[in-house]
Each structure stands twice: as C-alpha cells, then as structure tokens.
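The instructor's notes for this session suggest beginning with a concrete chain rather than abstract definitions. Hand out the sequence below and ask the class to guess, before any prediction is shown, which regions might be ordered.
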Amino acid sequence: MSFEPQFLDELRARLSLAAVVGRHVRLIRRGHEFVGLCPFHKEKSPSFNVVEDKGFYHCFGCGAHGDVIGFVMQTRNLGFPETVELLAGEAGLELPEKAQPDHGRNRDQPSLRQAMEAATAFFAAQLAGAEGSAARAYLNRRGLDEAAALEFRIGFAPAGRDGLKAALGRNFPEALLLEAGLLRRPEGGGAAYDYFRNRIIFPIGDRSGKVIAFGGRVLGDGQPKYLNSPESPIFQKGRVLYGWATARAACAKDATAIVTEGYMDVIALHRAGFKGAVAPLGTALTEAQLEELWKLSPEPILCFDGDAAGLRAAMRAADRALPLLKPGMSLRFSTMPEGEDPDTLVAKFGARAMQEVLGSARPLMEILWEAEMSVHPLDTPERRAHLEQRLETRTKLIADRMVSENYRRFFRNRLFESYAPRRNGRPFQQQGQGRAGAKPQANPEPPRRSDPGPLHSRRQQEVLLSALINHPWLLQEVEEEFVAIDFTASDLDKIRREIINVLTLRPDLDAEAFKLHLSQAGLTETLDSLMSLQVSGHASFSVAGSDPMMVREGWRSTMAFIRRRGEQVDRDQLERNFAIDPTPENWSRLQAFLSGTTTEHHALDDEAGAP
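After discussion, reveal the predicted structure:
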C-alpha cells in the first residue's frame, strides 16, 4: 500500500523538520541550517545538519540522510504507513480513505498543485493582456510596476464566469478544479463557474513557495473586498502566512520577521528592503501562524494601527501568544502612525520612516501592562487588587514555568513602582528612622530631590498635547493654563507653539485638518509620536472620538497631577537649600512656600465643592 505523492508532499510541507528533530536532538541554529549531535551514532562534536528550507537532514559523520518521515521511522522504529499516519495527525491532515497499491495508481494523473500552478500562469497572462488594463492601472496607482507584478506573480481574474474553467478544463478534470477551489458550483445545482472573477490575484505559497491558494482583491466596489481560496487538501488558511517562503530566506540572513495586515503591505515592505514581512490571510493570528513566525525569528514585530481597533488586534495577538511563549521566543509590537499602513507609509516617506516605526517596537510584557493600566485609575485598594488579579490571570496563561515567573516578577516590580506608599513625594522612612529623640547625624545629608523623572514628566505633557490635537475645540477652554505650561523638551515646545498659533486663528479646524497642517509644518515625527499607543495607552481620554466630558475631566486630572509634581519639586529644592544652608532667609522661603500651597489647595477644594 502507498500514498499519493501529493499527499506526502503536503505532509512534508506542513511539518517543520527542525521541530520534529528537535524533540530528539539539541539543535543550534547556524545561518539557515541547524546542527547537533547525531542521534544515529556516538559523536562528541556535532556533524548532524538539518536543512529546514529544503526539508532534509544529513550527518557528515555516519552518512544518515532523509526527510521528516524517514527521521521518525528511524528514531521510533516504525513502519512507513504507521509513520505517515502519526505525522498526518500531527499536521492536521486527514488520511486518504484508502491507500492504493502501486500497480493500480495512475502516475500521470494531474495533482492539485499542478492545477494551482496552471491557474497562476492563466491569471498572469490575463493581467498582461487586454482584459487586464484596469487591473494594471490600479497596480500602477499603488506603486507596482510590471517588474513587481512578475516578481510576486500577481495576476488578474477576468469578469466572465468561465474563463479559467475553459482554459484549464482541457488538462484538468472539473472535479479536481472544484477540489482546488478554482471553481464553484451553485448551491441549487447547475454548471460550475470560476471562483475568482474581476479580481487582482495574489498567489499564496507554502513553505517552499509553491502556490497552494490565491487571494483576490476586487476591482471597483464589489463585495467582499478581499476573497481567499476556500480551504482544500493543500490549503488551510489558519496555517499559512503570505510571503513566508521569501521571509524565511531573508530571516536566515538576520532579517527581522514583520507581521502586517495585507498583501500590498507585504509587497511594499519586501520592495523597500524589509524582506522578513509576512501577513495572515485576513484573520487574526492563529496559534499555528505564531509557530510559523517563530520559525522565522525569535521575536517577530507585529505592526498594528494606532487606533482602538489596532489596540484590540494587538491584545488578541498577545492573548493568543501567551500560552505559547518559551525562553527566547516572544513578540514585539509597533504602532503605525494614524491613517497609515506600511504600504502608504513607505510610499509617502520612504523606508526610513518604516524603520523608525519598527525601531520603536515594544515587548509583549509592556503592551500587556499598558493595556491593563488603561482600564481605570489605581485610586482605591479595590481597583489595585483588581489590577493585580487581571495581571495574575494573564501570567497563569503562560505554560512555560520560567517565562511565567519572569512575567510575574516584572508585573510585581511595576506594581510596586506604581503605588508604593509615599510621604511628601518620598518613600516612607524605614522603622527606627526619624523618630522623636533619635540621635541626629553629625553632618546630615541634604534631602534628596524627589524628581518626577524626565520620562514621566514628558509623558504627561505628551498626553495633554495629544488631547488638544485630537480635540482642537478644547483649546478655547484651557488656553490660559496651556500657555503657562513649561514644555522643557524642544520638540514638544515647538508643536505647542504651532498649536497655539494655528488654533487661535482657526478655532474651527477639525482634528484631521489640524493634523494635516502639523505634518505640512514639518512636525510629522513629533505628531506620530503623540498619536502612538505609547501615549494613548496612558490616557484614553486623549484618543480621537472620546466623549467631551471625559476629555475635560481627563485634562483637569492630568493638569492637577502636573501641578502637584511641580510643587513637590519646588518644595524639595527649598528643603534641600535649607538643609545645606539653614539661614533665616532659606527658612522663611520654605515657610512662605508651604503657606502659599496650603492656601491654594484650600481654594481649589472650595471651588470644587470639597467638604
């Protein structure tokens, strides 16, 4: 009994040889290969090589050689049928209903892969022909010329119902074309017709780059906008990443794996030099796709939009990844500037702009922390406890004990930093310090300045700027206190001045028009930073579309926080001055400051209706 060659090819394509071998051999990556001690003979220096992209292993010591099926047969002492059955279950492949004897098999029967290759050639010819003129014009508008179409084998499916059917029907039986997802039969019965019609076609390859499916982008306003091939014996959407074969070759040469949303993003990044770019097929990343990503790079970068939908997508990917994390294998996240995706960003600003986005990528643990911190303020013990509970729930999802414990330690440190008990801006004194009657030091050390920290101060100022850019109407209400803020960072002060200059003259500008003006004024880099998840993650009120009442309350809370931090810095400096030089003048300045701030706080409390 034997199995069809196309079934065995699909089995090999779905399995990672390095992963299977790695269960028995400790492998070390060297370039695009893996090496280790041979499991078939005793040796002290590694001579056993696994060539993942070509699907074979070879030992230069004993000559052992084979593919994933042969390796399992040898290491587990199984026969061929038992090994195929075992690996098929692992790969998610259904075994053929019955294996055919060798003498009864027609070796000339066309296969699904041959049909997909023939369809690829048909679509490419249609793009180059008269019917493809509108598709070529669309690609040209998107910055893709003939060379790009040839490189990525882009094609066009004409609008007729049977163009592909007629072209391939001479060499492939209709049943095979239906199984491949190239034809579709009406639900009520009738003649089969072309699955893709009036669409630009993007071939989807397997690990080796062989075409196994297609993605079609409609020309015009038809729906759905994007259509993928239906699943087939050689194609399972949740296991495939567009551009994987090219990305694998690039990542073997130290490129970084980058996850984008669509075909055009991948193509644009590859052409701009980011050869490690891949994309899921219109759905959220699956566990199988995450495993494929980690075969490319230990810490792939996931690019998401900076809006609320992008944040939700990032969190879905994070939650899906947590149970799969292993030492050295994680994810990083970068946020695209508002209104841009990799395709448009590279087209407008070049590869350097995309490199800056990738350079700002943050680790998974930071994304989780910021997402949980944005739920609500930590102003009560109950809310703090709820935060700790949520973080612990996420930590428990991580299967690897060592990684889980490191996440737990990271969150504990962040929690301590966020709400450690403080008195007058400084940590509580340890037991036995500062008590009445305690013996003073001969040369007391000046009190250490409680500096709010440049990063923390900058973040609060960024939040205020972000709120005004996303809600220009707010400036009319807060202009006086906004003008009085001391923006010490030159880039923030520059955009602050532009905000005042523009909105004073044009208070009717909406957010999008205002952002366009700031970009045209040469402030794109600062604007992108202010619109990023790094800023909005700290204050949801600053995000575009927030409720005006929430915006006002968020602004007041942030301003109050900045004032309190500023007062604490001033107080600490006066205390330091008095400790170093205890003159009556320094004492008077300190007392005057304390009296002034106390009076001001009472006035604020009265204005707010405090009891």
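Then share the key points. The radius of gyration is 31 Å. Residues 451 and 569 are 6 Å apart (CA to CA).
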